[in-house]
Fold:
Amino acid sequence: MTVVVDSCADVNLETLRRVALEGEGVRLSDRVVGHIAAVHRRFQDHVESHADGFIYMVTAGAGPDAKSHYSLEQARERRRRRQPFLGLSFGGDSLPQYVSRATIFAGISMLVSGHSATHPARAQAIVEMLDRELPRLPTRGLVAAGELMSNFVLQSRSSATIADEGFSAGTGNGSPASSAMAALAALFARRRLELSEVVFALSIEAIRAPLSHYHPALKELWKDPFAALALDRLGELLDGAAVIRRSTAAPASYRILPRVLGQARRALATLEEVATVALAQGVPNPAFIFEPLPGPEMSDQARQDGESRPEATVSNGSFHNSSVAPAIDSMAASWVEFGAIAQRHAVKLHKGGVSQLPDRLLPPGTDYVTGYSTTYLEYVPNQAVEEMRRLLQPTLLSPAETAASEQDDVAITAPVAFVAEREVSSRLDEVLAVLAVVCSQAIHLTGCSVAPRLETPLELIRELVAPVESRRQLGQECGRLAGAISAAIEHGGAELSDLAATKIGT
Structure:
């Protein structure tokens, strides 16, 4: 399949998923190509009529050279020479190919909007980059004033010259990498949240927590729409669960689950909103502001009002999206809380006096020397949980001077937050794997059934880590389960919440 882009609205979370994660191609509609061409021609006239003025990256230099003025002939020569930099960045593992694809796709909205005044052949060449393998971005070395460092890597194989190409405004000089990182974090976060809810529901079943802890009447009492969503989700997963439960309240870590899950859903909603807005903005630096043309980018209100505004090329801060990092950080904070709750559940399930299950989940008549169980496995998540907490530092603007340039004095923050959230979430997958195995062991030991919606997830968990009945390398098996969970989140489908559409061992 191919994603056809007819307006900025076509660059969204769903189409980015298809292009970045499913590998689909992209095509600009004929109407959009005509719109891009018309704006490009208009921009050439604008430049000619303002040759003595300040047009950032045209009659003026870029970055530290912005104070210099160039004639149009000098500007053309500088464009022909292009930037002397290719890939400068390095450090850490390379980010997956889908990050590069998402970044190129996110930048298409700047072409479609017309505000970059890009030549249509240049726009087509950028779109066609998605037809081949792209350079992979490094984990580090991407933080600068704007996204020039990622551009140096991704544009290293772009076409050098295009016949009859005139001036453009800010082609590529926006924040597509930040937009892509927000979008990818949001896509994976929804999957990880839904998978986490499955594991926590299994934990509720393992300890036989009273279902009244998740009573639907709490939705009205709490008046929190996101906690209500969490209650609904737990209600779906626990529908048909055994009526006979423990007679006393479950530990607080079970009773607060709807609140913690609700906060994660709030963070996810914010992250999805930030990503959606960022993808559709289509504003580079500088941005060519023009009287709306009839076409896909002209708003209904503009048509009705006969809106008119003077042309201008506006130097602006579109290269710095300050909303992405806080939104990703908030999502990572929920992962840290999930890790703390999951680790607490793994401990409580092994404490017979609390869980009302056999102590240490050992078979009757045995102890931790003579019997086989998941006891001591609860130690394993401790380091991951502590590392998650250390990684969860707020991503703030750096007070340091970022480069030897008086102009480029504030660095972007999205790459730092994105990489940190990936590290945090991978550790959460390890903690969830341990809890899933402990829940499986508890349910196996008691011989109890689980709610119908949880039967398939339980079977899939046991395909990788069977209930413990002998001496085994349990850590290796749990490690494979954690890896399979991470892989399922990155490559899973719409039914990932059931752990059914994608077998987590494949």
In short: Strands lie at 2-5, 25-28, 287-289, 312-314. The radius of gyration is 27 Å. The first helix runs from residue 13 to 21.
